[in-house]
Amino acid sequence: MNRFFELQDEISSRSRKTRITPKPAAKTYGRPFSEKKQPRGIRNNNPGNIRISKANDWLGKVPAEKNTDGSFEQFTDYKYGVRALIMLLRNYIKDKRDTITRIFDAFAPATENNTKAYIKFVANRLSIGENDVIKPTREIMKALVQAIAKMENGVEAVTDAQFDEGFNELPQNIKDELDPPQAKSFWESEVNQPSYYMSEIDDGWSREY
């Protein structure tokens, strides 16, 4: 019986010695992620894999001296990477790169990508022609951003909620441009306006303030 307890103690002692302490989760800019390798764009909070450029002082951009990638921008939070991609696409379209072909000839040049395959993928995903003219709207931006993020990372990398977070960081004038306030209904436009009533004095219309 004593030997039984001795064996139990030996087993318990060996188990304690071989126990592995889990390593802390690695971190990317702005949010933690597990040690399992993630796509570069997700690690950098840059789902569009926008290249580093001194000309673009993006909101939330990690300064060049702290950028650990060396080729692609890194952002302090995922929403800023999404915001930058929206801004870039909006600027392309405003600059007459207003078809899928024209956008991706610039965004994904043949020197670095299979541009034809990229164009075909995005056009099919948006269910439009490769040379159809598109207008910059919130819904078009979301479709383009999500298609690019999938193509760049190999997985769905921008959810609707993540797009909304990035969109909300845009300057108000650009938000209004891409998503114009809905026109007021007759009731909304009239309810706070001066009303009219029939005057008992002159039997005509008078304005009530």
Tell me the layout of helices and strands.
Elements lengths: L1 H17 L8 E2 L2 E2 L7 H4 L34 H17 L5 H8 L7 H12 L11 H16 L6 H8 L4 H7 L7 H5 L4 E4 L6 E4 L1
Antiparallel strand pairs: 1-2, 3-4
Helix pairs in contact: 3-6, 3-7, 4-5, 5-6
Q: How would you characterize the overall build of this protein?
A:
Strands 1-2 form a two-stranded antiparallel sheet. A two-stranded antiparallel ribbon has the order 3-4. The termini are far apart. Residues 1-8, 15-35 and 194-209 have low confidence and may be disordered. The chain contains 9 helices and 4 strands, in the order αββααααααααββ. Helix 5 (115-126) packs across helix 6 (138-153). Strand 1 (27-28) and strand 2 (31-32) form a beta hairpin. The chain is globular, with a radius of gyration of 28 Å. The protein is mainly alpha-helical. 45% of the residues lie in helices and 6% in strands.
Q: Can you give me a brief rundown of this structure?
A:
The protein has 209 residues and is mainly alpha-helical. It contains 9 helices and 4 strands, in the order αββααααααααββ. It is 45% helix and 6% strand.
Q: Which features does this protein show?
A:
mainly alpha, 9 helices, 4 strands, 6% strand, two-stranded antiparallel ribbon, 209 residues
